[in-house]
Amino acid sequence: MAAESRQSKPKGFGMMTRIVYFHQAICLAFFVSGLRLSSVPGVEQLVLHRLVGIVVSLASLLAMFAVANGKSLKALDWLRVVLWIGVFKILIVQLWLLGQGEIGLPSYTRAMLINELVAIPLALYWSRPSHFHYLSSVDRGTGSTAA
C-alpha cells in the first residue's frame, strides 16, 4: 500500500542532479583557483566574492547530495535557497565588476549568459512543487516521520 502512494521521480530529476553536481564542481574549482590569484595587486576585492562562492558551491553540493540520496525535504528547501542565492550573487558580482570597470561589456554579457543560463534554469527546476510532492511521497512510503 505504501508503494501506491509513492510518486515517480519528476521528469529530469537525474539529469538535473548531475548538472547541479557538475556546475557547482566547476564553480568550486574556479573559486578555489581564484583565491590563489588574490595575492595579485588589485584582486583583493574579489576575495570575499570567491569565499562566498566556495561556501555557496559546497552548500549546493551537500544539499543536492541530501536531496538525491537522502530524499530529504529539509535539504530540498536548503537547495532551493542556496541555488537562488547563487543566481543573485552572480548578478550582483557581475554588475559590481562592470561598475568598477574590471570587465568590459562584452565580457560581462558573456559571463552573465554562461552563468545565468545554467543557474536560473537549475533554480527554477528545483523550485517546482513536484519535487516536494515526490520527496513527501518517498518519506511517507518509507514510514519515516523526520522531515
Automatic annotation (TrEMBL):
Record-annotated membrane-spanning stretches: 20-39, 51-69, 81-99
Domain of life: Bacteria
The UniProt record lists the keyword Transmembrane: yes
Keywords for the protein's UniProt record, in alphabetical order: Membrane, Transmembrane, Transmembrane helix
Protein name: Uncharacterized protein
